């Protein structure tokens, strides 16, 4: 029998992290008061601290606004680069077709 994995909102995670970092409370104490696992909260805190140092999260959505924006911008750059490459190839093919049409 498996239990459904609980999902927490970004705001909930940030509030829990704030209790540990800003209010200097112990992870175990905060986790117990919020009804979450201490290892879960510890993971959130470590991820948050890495993001604060500018280290992008390997998986999942970032917690900090800056890292979330960076993820979105990277996606946009990837998409725009792909679109540019497609347009370059298409224009080269059209130029080649127009040259072949004049011969």
TrEMBL record:
Superkingdom of origin organism: Bacteria
A UniProt-annotated Pfam family: HTH_Tnp_1
Sections of the chain in a coiled coil: 63-90
Keywords of the record: Coiled coil
InterPro entries attached to this UniProt entry: Homeodomain-like_sf, RD_transcriptional_regulator, Transposase_8
Sequence similarity: Belongs to the transposase 8 family.
Name of the protein described by the UniProt record: Transposase
